[in-house]
Amino acid sequence: MAGEAGTAPAVDPADQLARLGRSWTWLLGAAIATLVPGILALVWPDVTLHVLAVLIGLYLLVIGGFRFVAVFGRDSDRVPGLIVAVLCVLGGVLCLRNPLQTISALSLIVGAVWLVSGIVSLYSAIATKNMPHRGVVMAVAVLGIVAGIVVLALPAESARALTRLLGLWLVLMGLAEAAAALAWRSALRRAGITGHDASGPAA
Question: Which residue in 13, 52, 105, 142 is deepest, having the highest Cβ count within 10 Å?
Answer without folding.
Answer: 52
